[in-house]
Design goal:
Elements (H helix, E strand, L loop, with lengths): L1 H26 L9 H5 L7 E4 L5 E5 L3 E2 L9 H11 L11 H13 L11 H10 L8 H19 L2 H11 L6 E2 L1 H9 L8 H10 L12 H17 L5 H8 L17 H20 L13 E4 L3 H28 L1 H17 L4 H4 L2 E8 L2 E8 H9 L3 E7 L6 E5 L16 E2 L5 H10 L7 E3 L23 E3 H6 L3 H10 L2 H10 L18 E2 L1 H12 L3 E2 L5 E5 L5 E4 L6 E2 L3 H17 L4 H4 L8 E6 L6 E7 L2 E8 L14 H18 L1 H7 L8 H6 L5 E2 L3 H7 L8 H17 L1 H6 L2
Parallel strand pairs: 1-5, 3-4
Antiparallel strand pairs: 1-2, 5-15, 6-7, 8-9, 8-20, 10-13, 11-12, 12-21, 14-17, 15-16, 18-19, 19-20
Helix pairs in contact: 1-6, 3-9, 3-10, 5-6, 5-7, 9-10, 10-11, 13-14, 13-24, 14-16, 17-20, 17-22
Length: 746
Amino acid sequence: MKRILLLIAKIAIGLFLILILFILAVKWNVFGKIYTEDELINYKNETASVVLSENRVVLGKYFDKNRTNASYEQFPKHLIDALVATEDARFFEHDGVDTRSLLRVIFKSILTGDKRSGGGSTISQQLAKNMSGRSSHGFLSLPVNKVKEIIQAKRIESIYSKENILTLYFNTVSFGENIYGIESAALRYFNKKVSDLTIEEAAVLVGILKANTYYNPKKNPKNAVMRRNVVLSQMQRYDYLDKKTADSLSEIPLKLNYNNLTSKNNAGHFLTYVKGEASKIIDSINKNSKTKYNLEKDGLIISTTLNENLQTYATDAFESHLSVMQEKIRAQYNSNASQKRALNTLVEAQLKQMKIHPDSAKLRSRQLVFNWKGLETDSISIVDSLKLENTILHAGLLAMSPKTGAVKAYVGGIDNQRYAYDQIFSQRQLASTFKPILYATAFESGKQPCYYLDNDSIKLSDYKNWNPTNADRTFGGKYSLQGALLNSKNIPTINLYLETNFTKLDTIWSRLNFSSKLQNVPSLALGTTNASIYEVANAYSVFANSGKTTTPYAIVKIETASGDILYAHKNQEPKEVLSKRTTAYINEILQNAIARGTGQRIRNQYGISLPLAGKTGTSQDYTDAWFVGYNPNIVVVSRVGCNSPKIHFNNGLGAGSSLALPLVAKTLQKAERNTDLKKELTASFVSLTEEERNQLDCEDFKEKTGVEKFFELFKDKESSFEKEQEKAKKREKRKEKGFLKRLFGN
């Protein structure tokens, strides 16, 4: 018996020594690092950077882990009560380890297999796990990780107050869906700050901690309600709630205000654009600073110029208008035989390019399909999928301040999840939105608004007998420069181009910050060159800003979480690229385009009263539709078209006034109903001088006189682009030399 007792004693001492050595090995970091007290003092969460609108609304976040830190003062008392009652009832009594709970787990969970006894980990131990994670050590994984968490919890309790521990805990814990921290969870599930959570909402979020997928209130609402009621019951058990209150709260149905800024965000393309700009700024800061900042981990606050209300109005306009036009273009391609053939030919070419056999392309499979009600999964063939994709109308809209360059609304596409490509920077044919640039060049060259241009049919022999026509198929008579521009007449515009020095046009094009190179061809007059929405907005801001150019920008400042300003935008000195006289003429003419020309629907149909000038644009065969509306306080540009220029409307539904103008009109229509926005967007154009008014005082159109008609009998019906340009050069030289110099020489 003595020998047996001695053996048992030796085994016990041996096991005890092994246990001591094991604990020491864990403490000495043999099984992985444990934070020291100094490291805990300087512990810093990886925190998402937040992007704010100009009125401080959260637009989105950039993160490795979606976490926004909150302070203890922001936590409502019932949130803390819910956590303590559910996760660690003796939190305010123990020093990191609850011995009673630990013994209960050892004897009930391990020895008797009773899993209902709970986990035994305190909030401090859970915090330790959240901070360090768990590592794998084979069969020793559980004891190693538990001992590490106990040691870490003890250290946490030795340097942090209970309030600090709760703050760290709430800011590190996962709530599923790649969101960390109570502030991010409150925003995701209830679209509110943590300080505004009600008792039952706090109980839902604390309930998620048990199993963040099973109790996810979005995915599993029944489970979430059941767990919420368990939390409320625990709060009653520990006297944080009376029975009547707990029972009444348990009867409340689950009410979410789900707000996933990652999956559905009306500023998604803008956030991508801002991230690119912010990354450049941060890289520049890091090059010149000892402290290095990370956009996805350091909780930076990025304040932007975007007006959240105007952005919402713009995205609403996209949905209400494009959903209707989408149905119309699909109907056209379903009913028109020649259009069907064109679509089938395009799809066949795409299948060939993708090396997909036609038979395989007819097999059905589950695919994501876009419509304006949202992304849907449907059983559909590759052929049908391509037909749907090719007939989708893509669009972009940009609004900016012409005075400062501040971006006020930015819709880069119809769905930032499905279609990440940013339409704001897509290069497409400018169509008639190019014309004001040509007319501005003419004014800069000395022509006046009442200079008349021929409207007779023309044919250019050296360009395959190109015979351009006006949109309304009319010709004859003469249009003044202002009449031709406000009515967007093609033939007079081509005649103006033939009279304009190309080098001057090219110079002004460059001054307006366009990136593409102009080709000296007659079709350029009708806007066959490419440009982006971004470039057009920037160029038209010069008209709105009396000839001065500004640089578009979106970031106002970047701050650290503690409020240190890392970057602040400084407005650049505006540069004059056009004369005030030229922009006064353009603005007056394009105001008339809104009043009685191609843009009058914005007044007649949508009832917008803001001072506005505007220009429509329709590419050849209706491939792209443009509209620009502006005044001295705002420039708004929209463009709509399918990805392939081979797919388009075959009638006036694809015109700028029908397809692109309504996006701007519907946006401004709602903006006018917002008192603050209306005040911000309302601005009168610079008043014309008496001389400028006189120069604009003429008829838009007039018939030719008998004498003019007589001389036209001797005029060639056919000409060439080269001859016309040569004539223009001679006229330019004669003009430069002047009458007296021609008569008397030097």
